[in-house]
Write a structure and sequence with these properties.
With 237 residues, the chain is of the alpha/beta class. It has helices at residues 3-8, 22-29, 58-62, 67-73, 89-96, 108-116, 152-162, 205-214, and strands spanning 34-39, 50-57, 80-83, 101-105, 121-123, 136-141, 163-172, 180-189, 198-203, 218-225, 228-234. The chain has a single domain, classed as Rossmann fold, CATH 3.40.50. The strands form 2 sheets. The chain has a 7-stranded mixed beta sheet, sandwiched between helices. The longest helix has 11 residues, at 152-162.
Length: 237
C-alpha cells in the first residue's frame, strides 16, 4: 500500500466520536447533562451494552476546578500538560496557580473552549507529536483519561516520553477501586445519543498502582478528595 493510502486511511475511533458524536455535540451546544460510559462490542458487532457506572457531568467539566481538582495539582511544578483536557478546567486551574500549562484533546471544540476561557490547548492525540516532549514537569490524566487508547501501559509509556527527568504523572483512579478492564466502549448522553465504539480502559487504585509500577514509574503519593483518588508517580530516565 502506498504512503498516500496510509495517510488517507481512517485512524482508530477515539473517545466520543462517530455516530451521534455526543461529546463534540455537547461541547458545541454547551447543554447540561451527563455523558455515560458503557461497555460495548467492537464496531459492527451489534452486541449488548453494559453500563459501567462511570459518567461525566458536562457542567462540571466546563466549570472552574473544584477543591478536589485543585488538591490533585497542589504542589506540582510546571510546565504542565493536561491530556484529554476537554473544555480546559485543569489547564485554567494550573494557570491560576502560576504554572505554565497546555491541554491536548482530540476534539477541536475542546481546544476552542480552552481558548475561549483564556487557556491554550492543541487538537490531537497524546500519541501525536506534541510540543516540549521530554520537558514537561507534570502530566495529568484526570477524569478517567487513563483509559485513552485502551492500553494503559502504552499510555503511561507515552507519558514517560513526555516527562522531563524527575517529572510527575498525576493519574486519577476509577471510582470503583476494583475496576480493571479494557476493551470497546461507547459514550451515551441522557437522550440516548451514542458515539461509535472506541478502545478504552478502567483501572481502580489497586490495578492502577500495579500498571504504573510495571511501566517504570515510582509511586510518590496517593491523594484522596472525597470519593476521588489521585496517584502521583515519579519518572526517572
Amino acid at each position: 500500500m502506498s504512503h498516500l493510502a496510509d495517510a488517507l486511511r481512517p485512524g482508530p475511533p477515539v473517545f466520543g466520536e462517530g455516530c451521534d458524536e455526543p461529546y463534540r455535540r455537547h461541547l458545541r451546544s454547551r447543554r447540561s447533562g451527563r455523558l455515560h460510559l458503557h461497555r460495548s462490542s467492537p464496531p459492527g458487532d451489534g452486541g449488548q451494552r453494559r453500563e459501567t457506572g462511570t459518567s461525566w457531568e458536562l457542567d462540571t467539566l466546563r466549570a472552574p476546578a473544584d477543591s478536589a481538582d485543585t488538591s490533585a495539582i497542589a504542589g506540582v511544578e510546571g510546565p504542565l500538560l493536561d491530556v484529554g483536557c476537554g473544555p480546559g478546567r485543569m489547564v485554567r486551574a494550573a494557570l491560576h496557580h502560576g504554572l505554565e500549562a497546555l491541554g491536548v484533546d482530540v476534539a477541536p471544540e475542546a481546544a476552542q473552549a480552552c481558548a475561549d476561557r483564556g487557556a491554550r490547548a492543541v487538537r490531537g492525540s497524546v500519541f501525536d507529536a506534541l510540543p516540549r516532549e521530554g520537558h514537561w514537569r507534570t502530566v495529568l490524566l484526570m477524569d478517567g483519561n487513563l483509559g485513552i487508547g485502551g492500553d494503559p501501559g502504552a499510555l503511561f509509556a507515552r507519558c514517560a516520553d513526555l516527562l522531563a527527568p524527575g517529572g510527575v504523572l498525576v493519574v486519577e483512579a476509577d471510582a470503583d477501586e476494583h475496576a480493571d478492564e479494557d476493551g470497546w466502549f461507547v459514550v451515551v448522553d441522557d437522550d440516548g445519543a451514542s458515539s461509535a465504539p472506541f478502545r478504552w480502559a478502567r483501572l481502580g487504585l489497586r490495578a492502577l498502582r500495579t500498571a504504573l509500577h510495571r511501566s517504570g514509574f515510582e509511586e510518590v503519593e496517593v491523594r484522596r478528595a472525597g470519593a476521588r483518588c489521585f496517584v502521583h508517580a515519579g519518572w526517572q530516565r
